[in-house]
């Protein structure tokens, strides 16, 4: 049994990928963290299978992308097959905007092991398996938790803040009395994870039949996942019977029982919690929202939750900001999360046509795309995915930017860069896990140097210059050159300004010599 610390900055309930990622982020910030999981060991079967580019970037933020991603499987997109079995649409891999492919296929147990091993870097983070949350109560200063240990004896720990990343049946959410609202799909789905699959094409395939729709998703290590909508007359016993599974897969592949590594029955849901925060307690991941799998965003949405909340908890726990900034967690994340859920629902309507009228609509839509190349590009370049952008929260003048190309409120592209000596480096490795000020011209840098003592000293902002005509100087400024890439154009829209980058890679503010005092005042008020 591990030595459980009695007092903690943050206690996290649930050691799935979201809880593990949150613990890694908070560990980097030096917070005292306790992560507990009621299961006696890590879950050893795959559930999530897709890591998107934002999820990869969060993995990069905790220093583990180079450890895990070389063993993952970059996706080359998706293909949709119609009622006749012929392809009617294809989504390409899309452009790389944030440093990684739009989709990377993962094996969740391996992914979680990397996150778990990453916690060994931190003396300030403790993790306990076989510990179960029984109850908790909050007051103005802390959260008191009653936990049942492996020896079945209850004990109490104290935390400044509590995070519930304990899944769709969250104990934390139930104790708080928070309801989930939304819809459930009326049909069950059979999930089959396989190995030694003859289909090695790294493309997700959606067979959009009204009679028997199914999805075929690539997995690392020569694996593949199949998702079948159950027929109305099929029982759970029927669905899980190995001979029946072999018969169902027969038109696709012959499969031996040893090549089936997981079988499960799911009821897909599109739901969101009424509230994501209750005083000092927060809900993350499936505890706050559940989505159908068709957009591959379930786990990824939770990883975005983790990155959004972690730096805010750090500022508050270290006395650098008022607890009021924690309210921005739900303010910022709720809308984009619901948009992703609605995207998954819409994709489900394409994958699962209910009747002839649905099929007719889909056929008409495909023909319409053939007439308009821009519309087809909207699909093939994955532009249908809501961009990483917030419409409210810890941002300055979000609705009142001077030009339409402003990045304020958006995720900063991870443009390819190199040091002035020609050595290539990833931009996020330079940004680190704090705040950064970015300039793109020596004259703007000179102005920034004159006022930097006024720029939120409690944040210890790093200064990074990115430009083509920079000169090396010993002034604690990191100077970089950008490589030729379409994403550079987005950054160049701020070439005459300084931009403030949050730890989660979102652009918080932009300013120049004319409005910097106003921006300093406004951002300081957001932190206070």
Overall description:
With 528 residues, this protein is of the alpha+beta class. Among the domains are: 7-71 and 105-179 and 273-344, FAD/NAD(P)-binding domain (3-Layer(bba) Sandwich), CATH 3.50.50.60; 354-380; 417-527, Glutaredoxin (3-Layer(aba) Sandwich). Helices cover 30% and strands 26% of the residues. The protein contains 15 helices and 26 strands. Strand 22, helix 13 and strand 23 (462-466) form a beta-alpha-beta unit. It is globular and about 75 Å long. The model has no long low-confidence stretch (mean pLDDT 90).
In short:
The chain has 528 residues and is an alpha+beta fold. The chain contains 15 helices and 26 strands.
CATH architecture of one domain: 3-Layer(bba) Sandwich
Approximately how much beta-strand content do the residues carry?
25-35%
- CATH domain fold name of one domain: FAD/NAD(P)-binding domain
Q: Write out the CATH superfamily name of one domain.
A: FAD/NAD(P)-binding domain
Kindly report how far apart the N and C termini lie. Answer: 41 Å
Q: Assign the CATH class of one domain.
A: Alpha Beta
Number of strands: 26
Largest sheet: 8 strands, mixed
How many helices? 15
**Which structural category do the helix and sheet elements fall into?**
alpha+beta
Report the C-alpha radius of gyration, rounded. 24 Å
The average pLDDT is: 90
What level of helicity do the residues show?
A: 25-40%
Gross geometry: globular
Which consecutive residue ranges, at least 5 long each, have pLDDT under 50? Answer: none
